[in-house]
Each structure stands twice: as structure tokens, then as C-alpha cells.
Design goal:
65 residues, mainly beta, 1 helix, 8% helix, binds zinc ion
Length: 65
């Protein structure tokens, strides 16, 4: 009879959204998004570039030149 480990760590799963393969908006690479709103691959997320403004970075910052 298998005993349940006390240190059983529950995996963080989305409530409604399910992980699916999406295409990154930045590098257009396919990656497994954790949720429906996740459209930036972990690789790009590592870079703080996308945090600067819009993920697309259309240059609509309206700053400087
Ligand atoms: Zn990317």
C-alpha cells in the first residue's frame, strides 16, 4: 500500500485556462503558455524589454524624438 508523502507539492495549475502552445509576440517562437493571457515566451520574459511598455513595442511610447 503506497503511502502519501507529506511533502507532496501541488503543481501550480491554472483555474480555467489550460497551458497550450502559443506563439510569442516578440520573437514569434512557439512556446507553452501557462495561461491564455501568456503570449510572451519565457525567453523574452527574461528580458525586461517587454516590460518597458507594450509587448509589441510599436514605438508608440510618445517620448523623445
Ligand atoms: Zn519570445
Amino acid at each position: 500500500m503506497p503511502s502519501t508523502p507529506a511533502n507532496e507539492i501541488p503543481i501550480e495549475e491554472p483555474r480555467v485556462d489550460v497551458p497550450k502552445v502559443r506563439r510569442c509576440l516578440r520573437c514569434e517562437t512557439t512556446f507553452h503558455s501557462q495561461w491564455a493571457g501568456e503570449r510572451i515566451c519565457p525567453r523574452c520574459k527574461s528580458s525586461n524589454t517587454w516590460r518597458n511598455g507594450s509587448p509589441l513595442g510599436s514605438g508608440a511610447s510618445g517620448a523623445g524624438n
